[in-house]
Amino acid sequence: MIDCDLLIIGAGPAGLFATYYAGMRDLRVVVVDSLTHVGGQVAALYPEKFVYDVAGLPAVRGRDLIAGLAEQAQSARPQIILGEECSTLEDQSDGSVIVTTTVGTAIHCGAVLITGGIGRFTPRPLPAVDAFTGSGIHRVVGPAEDYAGHDVVIVGGGDSAVDWATMLAETAASVTLIHRRERFTAHESSVARVRESACRIMTQAEIIDVIGSGGVQRVLVRDAASESIESVPASVIIPALGHIASLGPLVGWGLSIKGRQIEVGSDMATGRPRVYAAGDITDYSGKVRLMVVGFGEAATAVNNIAVVLRPGEDLFPGHSSELASTLPVGIGG
Ligand SMILES: Cc1cc2nc3c(=O)[nH]c(=O)nc-3n(C[C@H](O)[C@H](O)[C@H](O)COP(=O)(O)OP(=O)(O)OC[C@H]3O[C@@H](n4cnc5c(N)ncnc54)[C@H](O)[C@@H]3O)c2cc1C
After folding, report:
1. Ligand 1 contact, 61 CB (< 6 A)
2. Side by side, which strands form the sheet with 282-283?
3. What does pTM read for this prediction?
4. Residue 331 lies in a domain
5. Looking at the structure, do residues 266 and 190 belong to the same domain, yes or no?
């Protein structure tokens, strides 16, 4: 059994920033995420996009924002468990809580902070591609330069598919964008950009098979109108059909759930003792679902939790500028 003061469920932006704050409050912290990497939606859905509304960072690439948050979180010396979903929560007679993951890891903690965002999210199925077991399927897109010399096939008609196609058309040997329908759901300006790029666009078309031994070499694409089948060169396939999000096991935890969000008070308490929430997953009157709001909620939640765990401590944590113990590794004297 793992023992800690605070269990943070979800290693997205809100969870990573909450981890930093837990360190500032000298709490032993464990972080669990069902994905196999930290960074939540930012790392999984738009690592290469620039974000312009994080205070103090006029323009920051998604992956760089997550790298900074992860580095900041390390000052708390957290135990981070990836690839496991928190599934059950049991109150203990002394007020503490035990949370168990889907693979049976049990975590005994003083309090729980749920920073689960839109919940567990899994890519929409794409049967012909999902069945391929070799390399070359990229569910997270890396930097454009990684695709130099590759024949890239992107599947989807939304903003991510169209933006990646435009971006990679500048570096890849070839880019083919395959969409099942005639019309794209991406912004009109993005569709106009991809049409002007070197990308080949195939609409009303779908991949029916992936060919290659070890790695992807070609895809067979069926044109819905003519029923003809074309073999298209491909060394990389990027499925970009979006994700299916679900709160999963959290819905059975006796929390007040509205739609896909957990209702919280101004201290981020959920109403269930010792269980708090922050970030995209919270709801209250006037809620704005942005990262900067999630960062503030994370700080509010952790400071309130610190007082619950150690009655008599000040709610205000002090200023980080005066606390040497919260310095990131390698900074300061
Ligand atoms: C394309 C796109 C562009 C965006 N651009 C911006 C922008 O410019 N500015 C902005 O402020 N916001 C933007 N957003 C929104 C922003 O990404 C979210 O507000 C932010 O990611 C929310 O952070 P979070 O930590 O609350 O949740 P998430 O990022 O969703 O992270 C939650 C994590 O919790 C994990 N999790 C959930 N349930 C469990 C469980 N039971 N057990 C274990 N782990 C669990 C999930 O796997 C996930 O990793 C954008 C979103 C998208 C999709």
Report:
1. no
2. 257-258, 261-263, 282-283
3. 0.86
4. no
5. no
